[in-house]
UniProtKB/TrEMBL annotation:
Enzyme class: oxidoreductase
Homology family: Belongs to the flavin monoamine oxidase family.
Catalytic activity: a secondary aliphatic amine + O2 + H2O = a primary amine + an aldehyde + H2O2
Domain Amine oxidase: 57-490
Listed EC numbers: 1.4.3.4
Signal sequence, start to end: none
Source superkingdom: Eukaryota
Molecular function as annotated in GO: monoamine oxidase activity
Protein name: monoamine oxidase
Amino acid sequence: MSSPYRASKSHDGHTYTRKDGLIGGLHTYAVIEPERKVRHSGDNNIWEAIVIGSGYAGLVAARDLVKAGKKTLLLEARDRIGGRTWSAEVEGTTYEMGGTWVSHVHARLFAEMQRYGLKDAVSMTRTENGGCSYFTIDTGSGSRKLSLQEAGEMTTRAWKIFINIDGNYGRDICPLPYSTLGNSRVPFEKVQAVDRLSCRDRIEQIKHQLTADELALIESLVPHCAGGSAENVGFLEMLRSQALQGYSPENFDDVWTCYKIRDGQSALARCIFDDAVRLGLEYSFKTPIKSIVNRDNKVSVTSTSGSTYHARRVVNTIPIAVLPTIQFDPPLSPLRQEAIRINQVDYLTKIHAEVEGDLRGLRGCTWPGDFLYIYGDGFCAGGKSTRITSFAGDNRGILDPLKNPERLETALQRFHPMNIKKVVFHDWVSDPYAKAGAAWYPANYLTKYLAELQSRHGNVLMASADWASGWRSFIEGAMEQGALAADTVLNEVGVLGANTESHPRL
Ligand SMILES: Cc1cc2nc3c(=O)[nH]c(=O)nc-3n(C[C@H](O)[C@H](O)[C@H](O)COP(=O)(O)OP(=O)(O)OC[C@H]3O[C@@H](n4cnc5c(N)ncnc54)[C@H](O)[C@@H]3O)c2cc1C
């Protein structure tokens, strides 16, 4: 079954070929046309809720609010929905530009796929026995090939040593991973002590137990997962992700890098958006917000073009790295401002390529280098070329894909000789509405700032995957936050359920 949507050209994303150079703008189902549907406006109009941002947090919040009959306006800076999760259609092939992989341990995400009939509309990144089915390891002592099983076993052994800080593979420090700050097994001070460690600190503790290759695998897996460096990624975040995947590194591939929505993430995002519009959602795209003023039980939101919209409650889903561009009145608390100033550390690069022939089984790790990990990712349309997905950590100041796109090709060749037809990517770091990747934090951050980031700012609910309780920095976390914020708004502006005598409170 092919997607019912028509792909239109977005401002976002790039292709690079030697012949045509860098070309901006990719086609996607995520572009919304026409860009504006606002029937209620004017200074006297007060929305029950305004949702800022149409990533998954904003989409779920907006859908839940209109479903409960609330007069809701969605404001989005881009020309498309999805935020840091969107898929592009390039000559018949779907490329995931940001958030990609899904899994059934992501319960809210699964529920959304199920609700919109997509629960079995899944494809796999991994192709058993696809062409070039081996793992290239190039970590300082020359390049060599391992079987996928050998590479998996080596990674698992090293990761278990890395993660086993409590002698119980994280079960004591992170017994219920949705509660980083609540722990019924050990005193909070023990969690704080682990939070003080960076991944580099932890590597220093255990490196004598690792071979040179194992050490390189850990040093490269940290930036692969978290987009930062071993120095600036907090170890507690790694421990939490280990807990979330069932305390077992064997689950990493299946949970993190295996299953995708067949028609692309933008197909699911469209289902949620279209559902909300059918239920009465009004919206304005290409509407960047510059200020949020919260006074007299009314929140006023002003765009960069000077339009102001008023609401009882605002659900703000703007990512942490972008928050410094927004003026809040009254100002955010000093603690939240400090957290935003320190910021997250994920500046990963994700690059796709279309390469000639069958490389569907390809896997590999190069470290150190421009790229860290590579995945053969199924055939492109037509079945004669392969889609390749590759990740770099924080390459700022080293490899800028917009300034040196030709260097992307050289980096890919280090994994395997390949005839590259085109490179496809979204540069999240230079994107003004993301400014970074998914959110990972440095040492000494979570125990100090997480609760503050999650707290509301007067009548502004702050909802983002960046500070989710569970799958923070995942699609699942965005959905958690959007649903929670919508629930809070509904509790406050009132839901007229059946058999209730309560009246809406504003
Ligand atoms: C390269 C990459 C790979 C990833 N891989 C995975 C994966 O495989 N699986 C997974 O589960 N997760 C993955 N993630 C994480 C996931 O994509 C994010 O956690 C999730 O999409 C964040 O959703 P959100 O709604 O909280 O934020 P966003 O999606 O960032 O939504 C925020 C919205 O606010 C808008 N906005 C920003 N500023 C303004 C403004 N001033 N005015 C109006 N609107 C504004 C933005 O345009 C955006 O649409 C990945 C992320 C990246 C970048």
